[in-house]
């Protein structure tokens, strides 16, 4: 190829709007799931701020922003990428336009469902300059390890597990939710496979006390899990204080942090899988 043609092609490539964006160097993450996955993919040093909803022990020295934080606070950190999600954008509808006018790239990615997680990781990896294929391989490895460990410890037995997503009206996890899929990966069976999501795409489903007590009386629940987090502040003390607790007293109960049971992240997947295996089968 002639030198002039080479130069011409190079110029066209550099000016092309289709050219991939450069990897972000200074990232503000406004959703804990994004933060977890950036750390898991090796981008911890690129984070300059995280969400107030991130776990307390996650990068504690970094500034933290709420969904309603002002653009000026964020711009003071000179980010080149702000990662958010639809819920946060609805809570602060003016933030994106102000940041983008200041030249900051804003990318909104919804928390992925179980079968969408691989694609989500590839997209996130590309944004932070990590290898998408390696991210996908890491996911496959973690899921494989959890499934293998569960199979070894289960002895062919699958405990029937009820997940309390919220104490209010006793909502459980919807059958296709992240929590339900993780319980299944760890060798458990969902005690509420007939639960219907509160609305399309929701991870929680109404269930009710009557159905729980009926299943418990019939011996159809082996383990009662409390998902503890922003949606459910319940713990073992509050569970024991409920007037109907004697009806499930003989059922094994445990508390699992929301970030480990229902947050779509590599860190949560690994930690949650290990915790569930321990709860299901012991040490």
Automatic annotation (TrEMBL):
* Family annotation (InterPro entries): ABC_Transporter_SBP (IPR050902), ABC_transptr_periplasmic_BD (IPR002491)
Say which domain of life the source belongs to. Answer: Bacteria
Pfam families recorded: Peripla_BP_2
| Coiled-coil segments on the chain, per record | none
Record domain Fe/B12 periplasmic-binding: where: 26-283
GO biological process per UniProt = cellular response to iron ion
Supply the PANTHER family for this chain. Answer: MOLYBDATE-BINDING PROTEIN MOLA, VITAMIN B12-BINDING PROTEIN
Any idea what this protein is called?
Fe/B12 periplasmic-binding domain-containing protein
Query: Which species is listed as the source?
Result: Cloacibacillus porcorum
């Amino acid at each position: 190829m002639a030198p002039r043609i080479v130069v011409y092609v190079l110029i066209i490539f550099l000016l092309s709007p289709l050219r991939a964006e450069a990897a972000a160097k200074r990232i503000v993450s406004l959703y804990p799931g994004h933060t977890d996955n950036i750390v898991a993919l090796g981008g911890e040093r690129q984070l300059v701020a995280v969400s107030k909803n991130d776990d307390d022990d996650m990068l504690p020295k970094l500034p933290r922003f709420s969904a309603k934080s002002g653009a000026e606070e964020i711009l003071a950190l000179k980010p080149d990428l702000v990662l958010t999600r639809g819920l946060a954008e609805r809570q602060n509808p003016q933030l994106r336009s102000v940041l983008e006018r200041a030249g900051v790239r804003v990318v909104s990615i919804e928390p992925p469902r179980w079968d969408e997680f691989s694609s989500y990781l590839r997209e996130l990896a590309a944004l932070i300059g990590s290898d998408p294929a390696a991210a996908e391989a890491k996911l496959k490895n973690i899921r494989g390890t959890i499934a293998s460990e569960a199979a070894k410890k289960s002895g062919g037995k699958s405990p029937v597990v009820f997940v309390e997503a919220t104490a209010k009206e006793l909502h459980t996890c919807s059958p296709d939710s992240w929590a339900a899929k993780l319980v299944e990966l760890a060798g458990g069976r969902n005690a509420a496979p007939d639960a219907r999501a509160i609305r399309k795409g929701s991870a929680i489903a109404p269930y009710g006390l009557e159905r729980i007590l009926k299943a418990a009386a019939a011996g159809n629940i082996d383990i009662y899990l409390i998902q503890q987090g922003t949606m459910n502040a319940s713990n073992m003390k509050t569970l024991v204080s409920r007037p109907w607790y004697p009806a499930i007293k003989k059922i094994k109960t445990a508390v699992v942090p929301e970030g480990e049971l229902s947050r779509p992240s590599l860190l949560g997947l690994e930690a949650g899988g290990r915790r569930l295996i321990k709860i299901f089968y012991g040490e």
